[in-house]
């Protein structure tokens, strides 16, 4: 999961809520969606109530950026440009291979996910400092890492705490 939307819960949702100034209960419900849409509208983003990499960058939540197969947008385009591959803004198999190759060549976990550690190494966002990268890592007691087993997030990522709570 590299997006946050209504029905999800976990540490990344709580971080988003804190930034939006809504009650931070870690449950992405109607108030979070409403606040997110207002932010997106005010900042010229796609107003869909879904927080993805471009919204995270606009919010200054670089620790939540996780680019993977299926992700699209300006952040993916920046990644592709930095990797020296065709920049169409769509993270597909070719981008995943380029990310894995870059990671392997630069001492990173070659998992094909472009999270904060990879993006920092690429100097994609100047705001991705070592402190920000450490915020993206799962800390003891943060919750289970069920999603990583399903290939949804790198094993050490806080994205592994995301769960759906609506049917």
From TrEMBL:
Record-linked SUPFAM superfamilies: PGBD-like
Residues in Peptidoglycan binding-like domain copies: 22-59, 74-122
Coiled-coil annotated residue ranges, if any: none
Signal sequence range: none
Highest taxon listed in the record's lineage: Bacteria
InterPro entries with a match to the protein in the record: Peptidoglycan-bd-like, PGBD-like_sf, PGBDSf
Protein name: Peptidoglycan binding-like domain-containing protein
Species whose genome carries this gene: Starkeya nomas
Lineage: Bacteria, Pseudomonadati, Pseudomonadota, Alphaproteobacteria, Hyphomicrobiales
